[in-house]
Amino acid sequence: MRKFVIERALPGVGGLSNPELGGAARTSNGALAELAPKVQWIHSYVTADKTFCIYLAEDEDAIHKHAELSGFPATIITEVTGMMDPATARQ
User: What value, to the nearest 5°, has the Cα angle with vertex 32 and ends 75 and 21?
Assistant: First the structure.
């Protein structure tokens, strides 16, 4: 499985309540269940008008299919090619 960051343009998403975010998560989970095991949602960061979602997927097509099934746009899909954090500086 490859790791991807998906930027979703969702105007006003940052103003949603926890129950509303829960509903969105349930919608996403329903789409994921149809696509399993080709795509997995790890977590998402919510900002004022976007979400940044971390996914594992076989390929970019699986992410596009999830977007189609869930109704949540995959505005920008970027494959993760590595990671770094403060500890990387010690290497």
Answer: 65
CB 70 within 8 A of CB 27: yes
How far is Cα 31 from Cα 44, in angstroms, rounded to an integer?
A: 16
CATH number at residue 80: 3.30.70.3090
- At 37-80, the pLDDT tens digits run 999 999 999 999 999 999 999 999 999 999 999 999 999 999 99
**What 3-state class would DSSP assign to 91?**
coil
Residue 71 C-alpha from the chain's centroid: 13
pTM of the model: 0.93
In a domain, 26, yes or no: yes
Query: Within a domain: residue 23?
Result: yes
Residue 90 lies in a domain: no
C-alpha triplet 23, 61, 74: angle, nearest 5°: 45
